[in-house]
Amino acid sequence: MISHPMLRTRLSALTALLAFGLSLEASAQTVTTAPVGAMTVTLLRAPVSGTKITTFSPILRIPIGDSFSGKAAGVITTVSTTSISDSTANWSVGSLSQAATPYYIKVTSGAASGAMWQVSTSAANTASSATILSLSGKDPVAVGVSAGDSYEIIPVDTLSTLFAGFENQIGGPNVDSADNVKIHDGSAWRIFYYNSTQGVQQWREGSSSFNRNNIVIRPNSGVVYTRRGQTDLALMILGKVVVDADKFVVSATGASFFGGIYPVDRQLSTLNLNSIPGFVINNGNLDAADKVKFHDGSSWRLLNFNGTQWREGSSGFNRNTLVIPAGTPIVIERGSGATGSAVLASMPVPYSL
Q: Please, which pLDDT band fits residue 66 given cuts at 50, 70 and 90?
């Protein structure tokens, strides 16, 4: 499935990883190493003449294979608004800038620890520097990346690599007949499908005829998958468990979409989403309040925070202990009372090294 060099022999059942992870938040156990393994996402079959939604996040990070040339992690020596450099990285020129095998650079220490940027696929990396793409206006300098901060390179999937081998089962001649993959690019929702027409056989966006095979699945985001087929599909994802924090961008208006990147169920109150800078609580005006939205496997749930507890819509029930299943991505919808600009936020890590 993954076109990056994969450590395919280093597999273990994700059931064991999840069982391990599920006990961590409650018992405050400590992870001693980042487990490497596999997970299976079941893309649920649609009812007759209907569709079925499955949401999921790329919980496991793709390990870098042995053929990767240069440092997979190191220390930043210089930083600008558009690039991150390591004078001793020794990357092979252009190796991080291939559209079919994209990469992110994640900062792992310092004020911006957890922030990540995609390496540009139009400006080839040099042996020591990588041009990065904008993160909703949050460039490395603006968020506090400094020389001396550590980083790691993260391989990521594209539509073509994530769903490789399933094309005949999920495709169709147009967006209305094929399964749909909905992702958020940081600014807007986008809907893709695999056009299985003979002579086309590529990913397309809506009614556009452009090839979208290399659309990137952002590593701390998620996927809203709409199935039209009448059978379940088992999508296997390989990689390592995330053991540190990721930062994600919450836009000033509209929707922001981020992943459930830890393989554990979480109670809504433990995510501390109401602590996001500028988060608007419900002071009696539900339209003005920010909302947290997720799909529970059957329907979308829409929550707001009243300053003390989470509520669902206009209901008076306390939803602080509502469980967000492992791997479930979350939408933050800004209310009419939202002000200011986009911010970087993160969720608490439920375990530690």
A: low
Amino acid identity of residue 237, one-letter, is I
Q: For residue 285, give every residue at least 6 positions away whose Cβ sits within 8 Å of its Cβ, in sequence order, or none.
A: 337
Alpha carbon distance, N-terminus to C-terminus of the chain:
30
158: phi then psi, degrees, rounded to nearest 5: -115, 175
Where is pLDDT greater, at 320 or 1?
320
pLDDT at 62: 87
Give the pLDDT of residue 25.
Answer: 40
Model confidence at 236: pLDDT above 50: yes
Query: pTM surpassing 0.85?
Result: yes
CA angle 98, 71, 346 (to 5 degrees): 80
Q: Where do the structural domains in the chain lie, given as residue ranges?
A: 248-345
Q: From CA 234, how far away is CA 45, in angstroms rounded? A: 11
C-alpha 346/C-alpha 245 separation (Å) is 7
Phi/psi of residue 349, nearest 5 degrees: -80, 130
Distance CA 158, CA 180 (A): 15
What b-and-e string marks burial along 111-122, b requiring 16 or more CB atoms within 10 Å of the CB? ebbbbbbbbbbe
Alpha-carbon distance 314 to 221, whole Å?
28
Specify the pLDDT at position 11.
32
Q: What is the DSSP string of 80-107?
A: -SSEEE-TT--PPTTTT--TTS-EEEEE
pLDDT at 4 over 70: no
